[in-house]
Design a protein that fits this description.
This protein is mainly beta. Helices cover 10% and strands 32% of the residues. It is built from 3 helices and 15 strands. The protein has a 6-stranded antiparallel β-sheet. Strands 1-9-7-11 form a 4-stranded mixed β-sheet, with no helix packed on it. Strands 5-14-13 form a 3-stranded antiparallel β-sheet, with no helix packed on it. It starts with a strand and ends in a 6-residue tail after the last strand.
């Protein structure tokens, strides 16, 4: 599939490039993170949250809302699933990486299925900060040419943590897997169909 630069205007329906923050200390701190062979997500990293940029993002990007700063890293080349949150996500690419993105608006509101032919791929260069809108379907990034990926992930505090109780599974509730996380998986993803809605139709995209 075509891999589009995140600097292209086609990225604007999914998010925007952010240039107003000094990310050097954050990039340096992320040098300590060693990507695993699979994929690891850390919702909140105390070392990152000590940095001045954490307060800056709390006060400016999130308007004084409580947030968490963590990271995702590893190796991966397949789509496997798409998720969304009811809030924007602030990200920093610490390596070159590829994002596979879609729009929540294209999820069928009755069957909660999504055609993967609508997914677009975007290349984000290392050192680039960007916003991923709340209506953007996304998942873990993919590495470039089989290399590892690392990305900082900032979200409202509590996002992606375990649910405190079983949600109402009617309608959109069938997609909820964690706090502030709605997930649609591909049947070839390897995820448990007893726990995750298998609603991605079409190819399990590989880049």
């Amino acid at each position: 599939m075509e891999i589009i630069s995140a600097m292209d205007q086609r990225f604007r329906q999914y998010g925007k490039i952010i240039t107003e923050y000094d990310c050097n200390e954050l990039l340096q701190a992320m040098e300590k993170v060693t990507p695993p062979e699979g994929c690891t997500y850390v919702a909140s990293d105390p070392e990152l949250e000590k940095l001045p940029i954490f307060r800056e993002l709390t006060e400016t990007f999130y308007g004084f809302m409580p947030i968490q700063m963590g990271h995702v890293s590893g190796h991966g080349q397949k789509l496997n699933a798409l998720e969304y949150h009811k809030a924007s996500e602030w990200n920093l690419a610490c390596t070159d990486l590829i994002l596979l993105l879609g729009r929540e608006q294209d999820v069928d509101p009755e069957t909660f299925t999504y055609d993967t032919a609508k997914v677009e791929a975007f290349l984000v260069n290392a050192g680039t900060a960007f916003e991923t809108y709340g209506t953007t379907l996304h998942y873990a990034p993919c590495g470039v040419d089989g290399d590892a990926f690392k990305m900082v992930v900032v979200l409202p505090k509590g996002t992606n943590l375990p649910l405190e109780k079983e949600p109402d599974r009617a309608g959109e509730g069938k997609l909820m897997t964690d706090r502030n996380k709605w997930l649609i998986a591909h049947p070839e993803s390897g995820l448990d169909p007893q726990k995750v809605h298998m609603g991605l139709l079409g190819e399990n995209i590989m880049v």
